[in-house]
Amino acid sequence: MENDFTTVMSGKTDEELIKIVTLNRSKYQEQAIKAAENEIDLRNIDASKFEEISSKINVHEKLVREIENNSVRSVIRFVNFAIDFVVIFILYVIIVPTIESILPLTSRVELSIYRILSLVLFIAFYYISFEYNSQKTLGKIITKTKVVTLDGNKPEFMDIVSRTFCRLIPFDRFSFFFTRNGFHDAISGTKVIKDNV
């Protein structure tokens, strides 16, 4: 068992090792902590580097706690969804029938496929364009909230794409009643927080 911990700890970064023996000490078995301490000794991680990494870890942990404390509740998330849904619906009802009249759709199946695909495209275009460019949709502008990564930064394009298509997961809307972060937040590694700007 000791040997297993030694092998695992040898694959950890300096930062991970320091985190194990300081901040997360209570989460590990005594043998794992000893293996981490031995690995720190083997690498000759000096006190100044130890303090530098510990300080960096503490700053990051504080930022993560602030983001978590600043994340919005389910009611605000539902209001955002309701506003965005109304906007998407209005745009859809105005634009889709106009395009539909131009297309040579001859059967109910073609019409159904067109309507489903156009709705998915409307949802994708709406959320991706707004959230990637400004971290907000119209709902978030009204409720003064925004989308951030778990460490408080602006999400990358692929984070927003992932977040958007995860909204199509069945029951995604209900996941906010059981946890602060729904499926599309958890999977994409994002949060919705109060915009204090």
What does this structure look like?
It is built from 9 helices and 2 strands; from the N terminus they run H-H-H-H-H-H-H-E-H-H-E. The chain has helices at 2-10, 14-21, 30-42, 47-70, 74-102, 108-134, 138-143, 157-166, 183-188, and strands spanning 145-149, 190-194. The longest helix has 29 residues, at 74-102. With 197 residues, it is mainly alpha-helical. Strands 1-2 form a two-stranded antiparallel sheet.
Alpha-carbon Rg, integer? 24 Å
Question: How many strands?
Answer: 2
Sheet-strand content, in percent, reads 5-15%
Mean pLDDT: 84
Low-pLDDT stretches are none
Largest sheet, if any?
2 strands, antiparallel
User: Helix count, per DSSP?
Assistant: 9
What are the secondary-structure elements, in order, as H or E? HHHHHHHEHHE
User: Kindly, what is the distance between the CA atoms of the first and last residues, rounded to a whole number of angstroms?
Assistant: 51 Å
Q: Approximately how much helix is present in the residues?
A: 55-70%
Alpha-beta content class = mainly alpha
Side-by-side strand order of the widest sheet: 1-2
Shape: elongated
Whole-number tally of structural domains: 2
